[in-house]
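Please, is this right?
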Amino acid sequence: MTGEALVLRQDSEGIAHLTLNRAKAYNALSLDCMQALIQQLQILSEDKTIKVVILSGAGNGFCAGHDLREMNANPSEDFYQTTFSTCAELMSLIQQIPQPVIAQVHGIATAAGCQLVATCDLAYAADNARFSTPGVNIGLFCSTPMVALTRAVHRKQAMEMLLTGEMINAERAVNIGLVNATVPEEQLADEVLRVAQIIAAKSSYTLKVGKEAFYQQAEMNQQQAYAHCSRVMTENMLAQDAQEGIDAFLTKRSPCWQGR
């Protein structure tokens, strides 16, 4: 790991673990922190040895959202616009990189921290984790977190969170689709690693193709989505890894992926 960097990275067996490293601030997303995370994700997007990314937070919580102290100290339109556009860049990048990104959530995930959870491809939470979009409580509606939230959960559930600003527990977060599952906190890291290892055993080419197609078709109507995904599957069938995987299945052996 890197010393006191804003984002720590540790790799093991095709899995990169990124840790937000602002524990005293509940890993609030300062401008520098978001830029550091963007830089790490850009590097990872070109790293063909990495198949899965895990994102977690240091200390007592996952992420408390934007750094309100920093924003209060820089009361200018330019700074606010830079902050929110950088946040949008970060969230988009998470879904653009070829590797699946898994949120490992403990403690709290609030405002832009909740947005981060909603944006990640998968999310697993400790059973005592809590989630909210509380901007309405301080006169600042969580408009950018709303973008990810409304794409992850039912509209009425999202609107309730946005309008009330109240915390929801991990069980309800599972029920509304914000996270995949909840486990006791002491089992969280092991469970996320287990899921990451299952995914990391797949073809990196196939993961890249599937993740990209997933987000593309989600923005299309049904007819367009079927047409697009038919083209994607045709191209995928012609890939070396698909041919290898099918042959391995038919001959009852383990596949040897080439990533192409």
Summary: The two ends are 30 Å apart (CA to CA). The first strand starts at residue 7 and ends at 12. DSSP finds eleven helices and nine strands in the chain. The chain has two domains: 7-200, 204-250.
